[in-house]
Amino acid sequence: MPEDSVRDRLHEDHFHDECGVVAICGHPEASNLAYLGLYQLQHRGQESAGICSSDGRTIYSHKSMGHVAEIFMPEVLGGLPGELAIGHTRYSTAGDTVLLNAQPFSVACNKGQIAVAHNGNITNAGELRRDLERDGSIFQASSDTEVILHLVARSRERTLAGALREAMLQLEGAFSLVFLASDRVIVARDPHGFRPLALGRLDRSDGQGTCFVFASETCAFDLIDATYVGDVEPGEMIIVGPEGMTRERYAPVRAHAQCVFEHVYFSRPDSIVFGRPVQQSREMLGRLLARECPVDADVVVPVPDSGVAAAIGYASEAGIPFRQALIRNHYVGRTFIEPSQAIRDFGVKLKLNPVRHLLEGKRVILVDDSIVRGTTSAKIVRMVRSAGAREVHVRISCPPTVSPCFYGVDTPCVAELIAANNSIEEIRRFMDADSLGYLSLEALREAVDDRGRDYCYACYTGEYPTELVNIEELMAAKDRRV
Ligand code: SF4
284-300: string of b/e by CB count within 10 Å (b at 16+)? Predict the structure, then answer.
């Protein structure tokens, strides 16, 4: 069984969010709008953030470690002029956690000044980088995104769009990209469509027409009053420049593999992702879980915040009262000084506190979205029991997580995934739950309405939707991050 560690105490036992991107095209307040968009996407990455803007001649850039609201003070935004802007908020899935790896990356090359921000993970970045270095490219950072800029800079294509097309056809894996040149924004999604990228429009307040906006999630549109139009399609590139907007398919059609975990956990419930409201999927996950794993109980309690929507669905399907009997402290930072006196389950107690009178003497169904290492879940079960619960039945709104992700999500290696190494009964015993139930893969498919087989489920099945010729190298990278 996994050992307790400082990391467990500091971080939630969850897969970690990836990154968020935004792009604003044709608005006098472009960098302000990019800032607001990033603010809404903060949940997708809390380590660093950056914005690049263009006034038609020059690209301006600012990036820093930390949260969006701390980085972009009015004087910083005042130094990012122009009607075009791209932005990024980062949680490192590839490359180290240092400012050098903060995005957007910008360079001056034979295509002019360009900047790029990326959500995803290029699975063949290692080989591409070695080839580029052999040919004389010098890398500043360890992030896979820099590879894209080098490929663009080396392309013999005359136009930026041509160079991007050529570069993207060499990439394998997951990428939702936003590029900025002095006079245009170009956005693209990988041919499998792993990560989301939504398109919206916004009427300019000065009556000077419509501005196009792009973001990882539509919750970014709501704050700036933009209207969701649809998604950048898998394998599609959209160019917004002086000639207006053009859309083209740059890559042959490939089997879609949209990340189902966006609906299970990552995306905000107020977003529409892959054309479907996330809240709707999550409540359906809970309903189907209640049908597949029923149990007699007095209350349904979510593990906040990730289990709330599924618990609402479970409770309403089962006809059992929903109670918010675990209260989350939203102000716990990533670091704190641990008291010298040992306190049992300290990290979990910092984050969650039980509402005793809702739990005392009750048979409790505890709903969460996933179990990764199992250590935090065990502590939560212990917490609920010590608050007086008579029985604790754990219900998980997705199947057991058995494989790591190589498409832009930070997951532990196989050795750390509890479900990869233990039966459901062994996990139940480890958590000391009275019963444990997971949703089936078929029900997960139903909850996201995957009639066209458009989703990736590799972390539940181990069946990766792309060929991973360098899987040992990718696995070793996961091991190093533990
Ligand atoms: Fe998403 Fe899992 Fe596929 Fe990664 S492996 S893209 S987390 S469904």
Answer: bbbbbbbeebbeebbbb
